[in-house]
Amino acid sequence: MGTKDLSTPLVLEKAQGSSQLATFAAGCFWSVELVFQRKEGVLQTQVGYTGGHDNKPSYEAVCSGTTGHAEAVRLEYDPKTISYNDLLTIFWNKHNPTQGNRQGGDIGTQYRSAIFYHDEEQRNLAEASKTERQKNYDVSITTEIVPAGPFYAAEQYHQGYLEKGGQCAAKGCSDNIRCYG
Question: Where are the beta strands (DSSP E) in 29-168?
């Protein structure tokens, strides 16, 4: 009997009960995960890779720019506690959606801004929120709004990375998020 590979966690593929899934890319997935972990109604988060063509991506391959994947966060949430519109507001407030394939000093297609919708309602809400958010910018928002496709969990050491590094992931925490590699 072989041993199970625990280096990569199981992919969060479907919501349980009345919960729903949402997937966002907004730069380095470590800080994006932490901002969502802190929100009431977010039941669990998982960092990973999506939106590309490689069906066995690794962090190194994604960072090379050859896979087409974005660093993303998939989360399970309780819509009775936090709405998808609330999640969209958190997403827009977390990053600069006009920077294209970068966020701050992180440059590359893996750091692009994207909303990966799981159903038509999410798509419609995402499109409406993008139109509304565009009013705040003189330059075009570059955020992609595309169907959620295969999601590949990042290596285990990336899961909860900033929390493991001592940053607060408690619900309601408002400490500044410090991203580091």
Answer: 42-50, 70-77, 102-103, 106-107, 113-117, 144-147, 151-153
The distance of Cα 111 from the centroid of its chain, to the nearest Å, equals 10
Rounded-to-integer distance, Cα 84 and Cα 105, Å: 29
Contact 33, 90 (CB under 8 A): no
CB atoms within 10 A of CB 127: 13
Each residue's pLDDT tens digit, 113-135: 999 999 999 999 999 999 999 99
Residues of the chain with pLDDT > 70, as a percent, come to: 91
The C-alpha atoms of residue 143 and residue 150 are separated, in whole angstroms, by 19
Contact 52, 67 (CB under 8 A): yes
Q: How many CB atoms lie within 10 A of CB 143?
A: 25
Buried b (16+ CB within 10 A) or exposed e, 83-101: ebebbbebbbebbbbbbee
Catalytic: 63?
A: no
C-alpha to C-alpha distances, 106 to 4, 9, 36, 101, 124, nearest whole angstrom: 34, 25, 20, 9, 29
Reply yes or no on whether the pLDDT at 5 is more than 50.
no
